[in-house]
Write a structure and sequence with these properties.
By secondary structure, this protein is an alpha/beta fold. Helices cover about 50% and strands about 10% of the residues. The chain is built from 16 helices and 8 strands.
């Protein structure tokens, strides 16, 4: 027993464990543990009833938080109960690990109650902080609430796990009256048994959501019988209407993808860019849009991995692969794992990630590529898409979010700076990128956001191909209009 200073500290449930105020004593212990304050060996009163009460409190807090965020017009989501209840076996496993490590098996329930109480304080304390930041006056406080909110969105999950492990490890050492060197083994055990499961399992604790309201807006159009049969015909007819290039000139082909149906900004942006390219860069008859939006289901094919592969294959068949160039524009939300969001309520799509996109492009046989990905964390696409014949531009670095994705907006921050402003002043795709960077930084700084840090990669062969294409463009061009 190298870590112990006493030999008989096994905690026995006392009558206090069954009294109503024992619950509040345990909450106080959880609060002290979360604040890294001292915990005495008799400050936790353990019983199965106390575990159940803590789970019920977590359920009430989660439901209240969801209701506050969503409003009364929503629906109950029973699946969230599974996410909440999953805390219990994870906490019991972690408590067993600590109790076994220090040979205190009879302390398992005490440790479990303490860890669950600490988890509640940390989880809902951080959630309360996020809500508080939304209501603090940003203009008066120099936008620091918004900046802190962005950092919490980015690092909050990691911060929660680190805080939870350190707080529970320190509290366990104090509760068991161990010497401080025991803190190291306790931290290792809790990292493996308490934190690691949350990094490997997707846990959704949502109990109240407005998903049905969104579904009512998005799903009916797509689920109508005529639309169900119209969509394949739309894709086939638009693919068939695309033409090959003529003569010895470089032909630019355009494919625009608006991935997320829940906000109009992606559809608006892709429509604008397609119109610009048809007018400015000669892609009329050589361009196609794939759009997820209920307003466009009668005019445009939906965006999916399958429709993208069919479109790329068709372009690959039409183009002179040694001469012509593809401009692929993707606009949507993005995730930490660098997946590009393809979402239309009621539909199940294959995942579009950097490796999948590279595979699709290679399979199409398209050699000369200009690829622009406008999404959060889109910098994760750069390495996978690199070739000597490829220009890749992204709206954000691999670990950064991009901004401007509101339903009312006509452009994201990147889309406005790059397409509407910079590319209307130059024919050079790379020069437009350089021109857009300062404008993006200014907008983000004014809103108190961290810089999205857009990325660019220029293959050694594509630069010359694009310069040749630029030289063949007409000198007098009309800026694109919506």
């Amino acid at each position: 027993m190298p870590f112990s200073v006493t030999d008989n500290l096994d905690h026995q449930p006392t009558p206090l464990s069954y009294r109503p105020y024992a619950f509040f004593v345990n909450l106080k212990a959880g609060l002290r543990a979360a604040c890294l304050l001292r915990i005495s060996s008799d400050s936790v009163h353990a019983s199965a009833a106390q575990l159940i009460l803590l789970v019920l409190l977590g359920t009430v807090l989660q439901f209240s938080a969801d209701l506050l965020q969503t409003g009364r017009d929503g629906m109950f989501v029973p699946y969230g109960l599974g996410g909440l209840l999953l805390n219990v076996p994870i906490v019991l496993l972690a408590a067993w690990g600590v109790a076994s490590c220090f040979r205190r098996p009879r302390q398992l329930l005490v440790l479990a109650v303490l860890m669950l109480a600490t988890m509640l304080v940390i989880d809902y304390g951080m959630l309360f902080l996020e809500y508080l930041l939304d209501y603090l006056p940003g203009a008066i406080l120099r936008n620091w609430p918004a900046r802190l909110k962005v950092r919490l969105d980015r690092y909050g999950f990691l911060l929660r796990l680190v805080w939870l492990v350190l707080a529970c490890a320190l509290a366990s050492v104090r509760l068991l009256r161990l010497r401080f060197p025991a803190f190291g083994p306790a931290t290792v055990v809790l990292s493996l048994l308490l934190a690691a499961p949350f990094t490997q399992i997707y846990i959704d604790r949502t109990l109240w959501t407005a998903a049905r309201e969104e579904s009512a807006q998005l799903a009916p159009e797509l689920q109508k019988e005529d639309i169900f049969y119209l969509q394949p015909q739309l894709l086939q007819s638009q693919l068939a209407s695309m033409r090959a290039g003529e003569g010895s000139r470089i032909q630019l082909f355009f494919l625009g993808v608006a991935g997320y149906a829940g906000q109009d900004v992606f559809m608006k942006e892709v429509r604008y860019v397609r119109a610009m390219f048809d007018r400015r860069f000669g892609t009329a008859g050589h361009s196609l849009m794939l759009i997820n939006n209920p307003k466009s289901v009668r005019a445009s094919p939906i965006a999916s991995v399958s429709s993208m592969q069919m479109s790329l294959n068709r372009i690959g068949q039409l183009m002179d692969r040694d001469r012509d160039v593809l401009f692929l524009y993707l606009s949507s939300h993005g995730s930490h794992d660098h997946s590009f969001t393809l979402e239309f309520e009621g539909m199940q799509f294959f995942i579009l990630n950097p490796q999948a996109l590279r595979t699709m492009l290679d399979a199409s046989g398209i050699r000369n590529r200009v690829i622009v990905v406008s999404a959060c964390y889109s910098g994760g696409f750069v390495d996978a898409l690199k070739t000597d014949d490829t220009l890749v531009m992204t709206a954000a670095a691999a670990d950064r979010t991009s901004f401007g994705c509101s339903n009312e907006a006509d452009f994201t921050y990147f889309g406005k700076a790059y397409f509407e402003e910079a590319l209307n002043k130059t024919d050079s795709f790379t020069e437009a990128f350089d021109m857009a960077l300062p404008a993006i930084r200014v907008r983000e700084s004014m809103q108190g956001f961290d810089n999205s840090n857009p990325q660019i990669f220029i293959g050694k062969n594509i630069a010359g191909r694009l310069q040749e294409f630029q030289r063949q463009l007409p000198k007098n061009k009309t800026p694109a209009k919506d």
